[in-house]
Amino acid sequence: MNEGLEHIEAVVQKLLGFSRKSASTRQAVDLNESVRKVLALLEYRLNRKQVDLQLDLAQDLPEINGDDGLLKEVIMNLLLNSFDAVAENGRIAVKTVLQTDNRVALIVKDDGTGMARDELMLAVERHATSKLADDDLVHITTLGFRGEALAAIGAAARLAIVSRQRGAPEAWEIRVEGGVKSEPRPAARAPGTTVRVRDLFFATPARLKFLRSPRAETMAALATFRQLALAHADVAMSFVSEERRVLDLPAQTRQQRIVAILGRDFLDNAFPFAAERDGIHVSGLASLPTHSRGQADMQFVFVNGRPVQD
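Above: the chain's sequence. Below: its structure in token form.
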């Protein structure tokens, strides 16, 4: 129990720090209510003897930017994992669904390499680096670490993963709800992986108030989808929201994808650039001074296929 109390103190300090930073904004934290919910949740988990797995809540409360959607953090990590799995000319499909409680559920499907039963179990473990073939931490070519993102999502939401390797006779499904992991069970699916996330933050009620409206969360997720689609033109991608197909992008050249996301006007008013120094290569497109915007919402920077935003 002493270990649990130490974690409770850490959570309170985290909330106090966030409250001080946000006191003058519309996202200001109702500290008493937040602490009450966190303490109740931690007490419940202590009673269930899930201290080792669940009391990392203090570390799972990152600094929250009220202008960003929380759903976009989830879709970012799921898409990065899918890009690692699909080959050139592969396909990724994203779907958002409005739940009855006014929260947005998320489904991400790909036709990639898939995972075997043992890999599926490892993928949802904390601190698992299941994509590393060896101990080389200098030349990492993957975009995401399944054991980091999926474990964090499964600790705060209801997560279900169905995956089938190419050539395997059957698929496997695993569920993680509030950090509680089920045993894998046989399932039906074509080769590839499907990830479903629903009831976001049901296990961490202190964060529920940071969820914006379903439309705002969906638009933030769509913005992240567009950003990643720009960096991976060789992958077909689709985005469906409430049964409405918002984007349907085939595998394209880079210029075709730029036109699909940013419009022909940008491409007609941009010039290419490229430079290399000390083994680092930089290339891209920059718009002409006569083609400018009042805000930087259409400036995109990628490092090895991963979006970087200041």
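The first helix runs from residue 2 to 22.
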